[in-house]
Amino acid sequence: MMSEQNTMPKDSNHLRRILVLTLVLSVAADLLYWFLVGPHVPPGRMTSTASDNQWDFNILMVIALPVLIGVWVFLGYTIATWSSKRANVAEPKGGAEARSNMKAQAYWIVITTVVVLFLAGFGTFELIKGDGSGGGEGPNPVWEPVGAAQAETAALSSSASWAPGKVLVVQVIAQQWKFTYRYPQFGGFESQELILPDNTTVAFNVTSLDVIHSFWAYQLEVKADANPQQNNVAFTTTKQLGNFTVRCSELCGIWHGAMFDYGKVETQGNFSTWASTTETANAANTADLPAFAWTYVPDANGAAGGYYPDGTVTPYSSVEIYGAKQAAS
Amino acid sequence: MSIAGRLATVVVAFLVAVALVVAAVAAFLTPGTPGGVVNFTNAQAAGQPVNLTVQTVGSIGTGPHPTWVSYLVKDPQGKWIHDTTWELPAHTLVHMTVYQYDSGSPLRNQEWGQVQGTIGGTATLNGKTYSQYDSYTGNGVGHTFAIPTLGLSVPLIGVSPNATNVCGVAPCHFNLPHNVITFSFMTPSAGNYPWQCFVPCGLGYLYGNGGPMSTQNYMGGFLDVVAQ
Question: Count of CB contacts below 8 A, A vs B?
Answer without folding.
Answer: 106
